[in-house]
Amino acid sequence: MSRMPDIIPVSDLRQGAAALLKRIRNSREPVVVTQRGRAAAVLLSVEEYERRERDLEVLRLLAHGDQEIAAGVGHDLDSVLAEADELLAGDSQ
Predict the structure, then answer these.
(1) What is the pLDDT of residues 17-48, one digit of tens each?
(2) Strand (E) positions, 4-88?
């Protein structure tokens, strides 16, 4: 189960931006910034943002593969492995 993110008002962000950024980098946890009592933004470390983007791209590729399989457009395992062997053989030359 994921942990509830920290929530801070925008006034706290204005007053202690440097300390907040350091906390975000160290904890790698998101912080929700509120404005007028409503969520306005989420702050993440760059490393965490990039990791989440990579994870999301993998999920997109998996979903695309599932759609291809359902549509009968996918490739059989033997042809995929043969193509991979060819690519790997080309790298070693």
Answers:
(1) 999 999 999 998 999 999 999 999 999 999 99
(2) 6-9, 31-35, 38-43
Q: How far apart are the first and last CA of the chain?
A: 48
Q: Where are the domains of the chain?
A: 6-44, 48-92
Buried b (16+ CB within 10 A) or exposed e, 72-81: eeeeeeeeee
**Residue 10: which residues within 8 A CB-CB, separation 6 or more?**
33, 34, 35, 40
> Please, are residues 8 and 20 in contact by the beta-carbon 8 Å criterion?
yes
The pair of structure tokens assigned to 21 is: 């950024």
CB 33 within 8 A of CB 9: yes
Domain 6-44 class? alpha beta
| Residue in this structure with the two tokens 């759609």, named with its chain if needed | 67
